[in-house]
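Appendix B, record 7
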Amino acid sequence: MRLGVLDIGSNTVHLLLVDAHLGAKPEAFASHKRPLSLVKHLDEQGAITDEGQAELIGFIAEAARFAARHRAEDLLSFCTSALREAANGEAVLERVVSETGVELTELSGAQESAMTFFAARRWRGWSAGDILNFDIGGGSFEIAYGRDELPSTAVSVPLGAGRLTRDWLGEDPPSKDQAKALKSYIREELEAARREFPVLSEHTEVLATSKTFRSLARMTGAAPSAAGPYVPRSLNHSELKPLAKRLGSMTAEERAELPGVSTLRARQVFAGSLVAEQAMKVFGIEELQICPWALREGLILRRLDSLVREGAVQVPAAPGVGHVNLGRELRKPSRGDVPGGRPAAAAAVEHAH
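Structure tokens (predicted):
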């Protein structure tokens, strides 16, 4: 079936259409996106301005038409920190429904973290033991850990690259005092978050799933995106630390000339590099692997799972495998089945459509 995923992020609004089938890897069919930094459309009270709302609603209506034109059978529409934290977020969500008919699901930071982890686990499979996953967004930084499909610990901290750039780095390039103060703040936030997580075993696989991490890996020699998702890509702390220092001495225009850095993200990539470098330092990580799947893929896969449970999608019988009636029905998972007993951290976003 063809599924649409409408993602209202901090930097872009993005509609992705995928052909997804039970037991198969979701394949991208079409993509439609536009740069839209909602944080640049906030007034002094932290509310999204009329101009920002008009741009947002215009794109959502356009995306809905795009999805219908390409015969999407289901549309998952969600928003993250940009709308979650706006002073008038609820009113904006109501206006979106009224004018476009699209209902945006507002993901909490913990849900965002958990669903991103879920995508990373599906990508890596069970060959990976415990997984620690990092994801730097525009407004927040998600960290999740666990050994099952859903994490036992999932947190979100206010260390998004766009947010930090707006609040801490007023000059271009930033002054040494600004960079030093921001680095200290990031470290304090991460040290507090670190206490939520267990001691990492030697078998823990550390992954990173965001555009910021992909850009940083590219700048340290990883393969370009054109090489495809199956090329292994990694990021080393020993290479990241000098890169962060170098980025801090450059203007946004100069950063945009670097491989893997777009003009849209050139200003905030320095703040992102500080978050990545400090996260690796605080968690004691020398190397992490880049995972191409993230929040959108997690929601798609979770949606397919929910359709199976609802009976909307039939599970095909495996050829050559006989049927054994065990004389009992499988029970539906309850809250107590959530790894670590943290439903807020690991709850599936079952209604994200």
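Remarks on this record: The longest helix spans residues 50-69. The chain has twelve helices and eleven strands.
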